[in-house]
Fold Sigma-54-dependent Fis family transcriptional regulator.
Amino acid sequence: MSYKLEQRVFSDPLQDAQRARERLLLEGEVPSGFLRAQIEASWQRSLKAGVRFQDPLITSQPPMADLFELKENHQTLLSMAAPEMDHLSKQFNRDKGMVILANEKATILSVLGDKRSLNNAGSYALDPGICWSEETHGTNALGTAVVDGKPVMINGTEHFLDGVTCFSCTSTPIKGVNGQLLGVLDLTTEANTQHIQGNMSAVQLAARSIENRLFISHFQEQAIIAFHSRTEYLRSAWQGLIAIDMEGKILALNEQACQLLKKSREQLQHQPIEAITGQSPTVLLNQLLRNNGVTLQLRNIVLHCELLHFPRQLTGFTSRREPLSRGTEKAKRSSDHPTIQKIGAEHPRLAKALRMALKGINHDLPVLLNGETGTGKEVVARALHNQSRRCDKPFVAVNCAAIPEGLIESELFGYREGAFTGSRKGGMVGRFQQANNGTLFLDEIGDMPLALQARLLRVLQERKVAPLGGGEEVDLDIALICATHRDIKTLVKDNAFREDLYYRLNGVGVQLPALRVRSDLEALLSDLLTRVGASGVRIHEEVLDMFRQYSWPGNIRQLEMVLKAAVAFLDEGEKEITIDHLTDDFIDELSANSHSGRAGTIKVTELELIRNTLDQCEGNVSATAAALGISRATIYRKLREYDA
Ligand SMILES: Nc1ncnc2c1ncn2[C@@H]1O[C@H](COP(=O)(O)OP(=O)(O)OP(=O)(O)O)[C@@H](O)[C@H]1O
């Protein structure tokens, strides 16, 4: 008894844990009072599960097919966690930290960091596919966080297996939109007690960010309100999030929202938002949109709220208002997929490129679309397919940037049943094969890893694809459309993109113009207004002028969202969008970011003017020179300057 008291007064967790190890070895039981309560309970469970200190670590990974399947089943979690893991890994690079993501059963999905730097055999058990449950590895941060469902730090000898007592590990659970356990994020460094608290804060911050990202992506079609009692915490990982449906019913909340509102998830979920805010959802949403945020004085707390996510069907939300236009479903559907004629209607140069692309695709020439984000690359790809000879065959789109690097190959080429021990029954048909006879759209092709570019080139040359793991080759008959926002020629120059592949993909190149240089803004506006159900609505000249001056970094996608918001603000019977219907933050953005006002943009504007005029004159340089009152030589010189 006196011994325990003494060691508690001069508590050193590592020494305490070492003593607890010695006692356990001597007595065969976990001694009480030596370890922190969470660790003691975990040691008890480990012992009960039959794990012993000296048990070897499991270092062999499962078969490749199981690994593929594991990653495939957790693709969303992996992609949402990737940026946070990357950030964490850079932050702890100096400390030789390894960042680990595991699933809800403590099986490792992904590891960042150089395990050789940890200089310990134990690090070789930190590979994807290896399970770190308490049953397999005794007390460890991943397995214990899964059991406890809360953050855990395990330092040195607090681990159960001798083989991992050289590590300090900090894990925190990652929860899904309904509070269910999705996985665990962990930071493993060499054992020391000094930094572990700092590690915990960093890991928790990263885990909250991942959860918030998952939350936002899960409720893409709903309104998401972000809030906090302190404004400086808005837009941070600690903000509360609530997703509501079109009737204003709470669909889900994140952990921080429950803490801020001091209520459990069960108490709040499925309740009307009015029960919390005291305001009808329509009033609240309209206020949030109009004022860029509101402060709510609730009974026991002040909440600063922002509308984080704008529901696509906002007009449906303000359902008491008459719909602005009553186009038939069919009309709506057809306007959802503009034709290439419509896309290029008032843009001769684009129209010509699109006509050539359609001819090309019908003769099996690949098409390469290039344009900034939101310029309509996917819209064009679909239009080309819909009007091609393959229109009744599949259109398969793959975003190369959204798939984890290790999975792109199996995603594109598939793998065979029996290709690997334990491979999935029926294997997996790759996207190439899915698109056979139809069109394959490879978006963000500029992000394809170099190693895979070689394989892609081979497939395109041979027009055959063999699933991973060998097996029969399948003849391919596909139209290929690729897209990128990157400058592929620069990537080629930098050796980041294979030159031979570039020429293979660039059968017909189509440059999609940025919105700021398009001469058909009015036509696009009327098209987009129809798409958002407001075909009879006009746009005030002053707003049009502002739109013409603005640089539109998000291009057509951004314009579409601005119009949706403006339409939602129209009062009943109102038929004109004026400056009053634009949100304050967009008006600020307009004045700060008009392309004629930006520093250093005179040259850009000049070149845009030349390009625009060239478009209008269908590429005729003499006509352009005459229209602008400058010489042909000046036009060539300025275009060369731009290229340089
Ligand atoms: N010609 C068009 N007419 C009407 N809407 C369009 C047109 N082009 C694009 N859009 C709309 O703009 C948005 C962005 O289009 P899309 O996804 O095709 O762009 P993208 O260039 O592929 O973007 P990213 O590079 O970010 O993937 C979509 O909502 C789409 O409906």
Notes: Residues 1-10, 312-335, 596-602 have pLDDT under 50 and may be disordered. The chain has 29 helices and 21 strands.
